[in-house]
Amino acid sequence: VGKCKLDFDANASTIEKNPAENISLNQTGTFTFCVNNFNNRDAADVPFKVIVRKSGQELAEHNAIWPKSRKKGDKMVVCTVTVTPQDLQEKSVEMSEAEQKKLLAKEAEWARLFGEPKAYLACEAQVQFLKTVLTDPKAAVAKGAQQVFEQLLTAKPQAEQRSRAWQRDAN
């Protein structure tokens, strides 16, 4: 509808444990929110909620259940939201003192873990190949991305000079 848009729709193609959608209403008007469960994958009642926020502040939470007997396409009206011109005006964001302290603590943790990123341009002679051998590729697939990344970081690399790699490939 006009300037309104669906920002993201989790669970549309891949199954999500906690699916979510986000809709931005970027124009004035009154909007009726309807829910349609396109695919009830486990044939059970599906609890859900619609959270209405304006300017980042939560105004209302609407809890509902999509009954297992309800057919897809039989949209359920959940709530109505009115957007006024005042709702669309940009407002400065101010944090409480507690929020500021929390953010500063996270910033310090970020700096401790990652530091200040630097970029270097290396020439070919300075580059070494680092090869990490995974003994069980299936185990890596079963783990989450963060776990696999940590495993790669802690594995012992086997450094090979680029020239040796080229010589081996040439033979």
Summarize the structure.
The chain is α+β, with helices and mostly antiparallel strands and 171 residues long.
Tell me the number of helical segments per DSSP (H or I, 4 or more residues long). 4
Strand content: 25-35%
Order of helices and strands: EEEEEEHEHHEH
Largest sheet descriptor = 2 strands, antiparallel
Low-confidence regions: 159-166
Through-space gap between termini? 63 Å
Based on helices, strands and strand pairing, what is the structural class?
alpha+beta
Percent helix range = 25-40%
The rough form would be described as extended
Rg, rounded, reads: 26 Å
Secondary structure: number of strands: 8
Number of domains: 2
Q: Any chance you could write out the topology, listing elements then pairs?
A:
Layout: E1 5-9, E2 21-24, E3 29-35, E4 46-54, E5 57-66, E6 76-83, H1 97-114, E7 128-131, H2 137-142, H3 145-154, E8 158-161, H4 162-170
Structure characteristics:
single chain; two-stranded antiparallel sheet; extended
Structure description:
The chain is α+β, with helices and mostly antiparallel strands and 171 residues long. The chain has two domains: 5-88, no CATH class; 122-171, no CATH class. The chain is built from four helices and eight strands; from the N terminus they run E-E-E-E-E-E-H-E-H-H-E-H. The protein has a two-stranded antiparallel ribbon. Strands 3-6 form a two-stranded antiparallel ribbon. A hairpin with a 2-residue loop joins strand 4 and strand 5 (57-66). The longest helix has 18 residues, at 97-114. The protein is extended and about 65 Å long. It comes from Cladocopium goreaui. This is Transmembrane protein 63A.
